[in-house]
Amino acid sequence: MGDVKLEHLYKRYDDVTAVEDVSLAIEDGEFVTLVGPSGCGKSTTLEMIAGLETPSEGRVSIAGEDVTDLPPKDRRLSMVFQNIALFPHMDVRDNVSFGLRLRDFDDEEIDRRVEQAAETVQMDGMLDRMPDELSGGQRQRIAIARAIVREPEVFLMDEPLANLDAKLRVHMRTELQRLHRELGTTIVYVTHDQEEAMTMSNRLAVMNEGEVQQFADPLTCYYEP
Ligand code: ADP
Ligand code: ADP
């Protein structure tokens, strides 16, 4: 189902190689974290999985299908970013259903999915609120609900907790792990925070200077302090 395969991926900009020969086989249902210092190529790798950046070389496959030449909307995935941009003039319900309305889902199906997604992130009962009536954690949950509602096989998350305060960040880690267990989807998660990476994921891809140095169980990975 939602396995993700990267084969010899490269991304070169004018004078930088952002990603250099990255190959990863992420299995269906795994929670994999790309971790490493700022500038090591994590976001670029994720953006190539999403289709937001075109690889200079190499292939990306999702669920057994080569998607390298497909636009983002045709890949079976949803992405949650660091900067949670909800539409300020739309209530929570409309924010969550926006992507479905774009894709011409019928009203009944939209309602069903929105209610279910809101329940999953424990935000049912808040669908009529406006974004400025929500706390940071609640907005983050809504951003996640907006991704869930499309029922993707793969979630991509780029530092989704980075803008939250420390207490809420730790709380949301647990929530994301619960969500992963409940939905059973594949998650590819980007963070520079080693502790976050260690506690959340099944496998870590430790990156440095554009390359994956280790791809292993968190307990067996070795870090330079
Ligand atoms: P990370 O997510 O690990 O912080 P990035 O993937 O954002 O790293 O960036 C990897 C490298 O590629 C960095 O050196 C960055 O400056 C460079 N880079 C990223 N995007 C661009 C771009 N659009 N143009 C030029 N260089 C870029
Ligand atoms: P969590 O998302 O983990 O449940 P939050 O930190 O998001 O916790 O919110 C804790 C409580 O504080 C919520 O019930 C929320 O209603 C309230 N709250 C915090 N900040 C705001 C805000 N700016 N506007 C409205 N309610 C807020």
TrEMBL record:
* EC nos: 7.5.2.13
What reaction(s) does this enzyme catalyze? D-xylose(out) + ATP + H2O = D-xylose(in) + ADP + phosphate + H(+); L-arabinose(out) + ATP + H2O = L-arabinose(in) + ADP + phosphate + H(+)
Q: Where in the cell is it found?
A: Cell membrane
Judged by the first EC level, this protein's enzyme class is translocase
An annotated GO cellular component of this protein is: plasma membrane
| Family (UniProt) | Belongs to the ABC transporter superfamily. Carbohydrate uptake transporter-1 (CUT1) (TC 3.A.1.1) family.
Main location per the UniProt record: membrane
Organism in which the protein naturally occurs: Halorientalis brevis
| Keyword Transport among UniProt keywords | yes
**What function is annotated for this protein?**
Part of the ABC transporter complex XacGHIJK involved in the uptake of xylose and arabinose. Responsible for energy coupling to the transport system.
Task: Give the fragment's position in the full-length protein.
Answer: 1 to 225 of 414
Entry keyword DNA repair: no
What keyword terms does UniProt attach to this protein? Answer: ATP-binding, Cell membrane, Membrane, Nucleotide-binding, Translocase, Transport
Its membrane topology: Peripheral membrane protein
Q: How does it assemble?
A: The complex is composed of two ATP-binding proteins (XacJ and XacK), two transmembrane proteins (XacH and XacI) and a solute-binding protein (XacG).
Q: Source organism's superkingdom?
A: Archaea
Q: Which residues form the ABC transporter domain?
A: 4-225
What protein am I looking at? ABC-type D-xylose/L-arabinose transporter
- One MF term from GO for this chain? transmembrane transporter activity
